[in-house]
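Data deposition worksheet. Section B asks for the primary sequence of the deposited chain exactly as it was used as input, without tags or linkers unless they were present during the calculation. Section C holds the resulting structure in token form. Section D is free text for depositor observations; keep each observation to a single sentence. Incomplete worksheets are returned to the depositor.
Section A, Depositor: J.P.
Section B:
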Amino acid sequence: MSIKITGYDLNIETLVDVARHGKKVFLSEDSISKIEKCRKLVEDKIDAGEIMYGINTGIGEFSETILNPDQIKDFQKYLIYNHSAGIGDPAPIEHIRAAMFSRINVHAKGMSGCRLVITETLVEMLNKGVTPQVCTKGSVGACGDLAPMSQIALVLLGEGKAYYNDELFDAKDAMSKAGIAIPGLEARDGLAVINGSNLLTSMSALFIYDTIKWVKQAEIAAAMSYDALLANPGPLNHLIHEVRGFSGAVKSSCALRKNLENQSKALRYSSAINNKKQGGLDSLKLSRKQVRN
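Section C:
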């Protein structure tokens, strides 16, 4: 079953399904309507001569430079060229697929101002297995992952390199083999693709997902150690940890008790395992909440 993108209900598990397992995605009708409505607003304001930062002006120290109609389109292209400055080894494909998916999710809110074809092309790339080659180094996460996201945006210009069926091609060839038209970039399109910390956030989501798995494995190993050492499960009493007030300890003790349900009568006293895990669980819960938001 394909995953509907609405802009408001993306979670870590869904991101993993798309980034790692190739689940197909599609935009909700509501999101399509919102994207088109926002784009019309942008175009109406351009036609009316209204000054908008990064659309018909330069950026940074050139923010007061007004672009004429002929320069507006070229500006988005040169913006991407200017920021495609990553270095280092290629990033894992799953990291880039996750970044693309989370960027599509941002567009789906209908507030990015790009043309619908830009978002739909990113969706098509995900579904057909075209993944831009992106360097691991270059972003400091300020204002957005500008360098890596620009390497993604290059493919929308038919430039750079991209993987198709796990083989690396020039971007234009990869898109052609997948049967995807190259949309180019017009007013606002480039900024709408790059101006967000989607790579770092998506990588965090993947790491959190894996860490949750590791914690579950650690709980099973800890319970086996309790059983093998005939340790006393008394310190795992939920009343103790509820009084102490550490949510991680409450959750950890609950998991250990569940794994020890069939344990024989314990002889020794041990609370160290649970105490050492509580801080990690508290940190993991906070990290998950921040990435989810």
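Section D:
Confidence is low (pLDDT under 50) at residues 264-272.
The CA atoms of residues 6 and 34 lie 10 Å apart.
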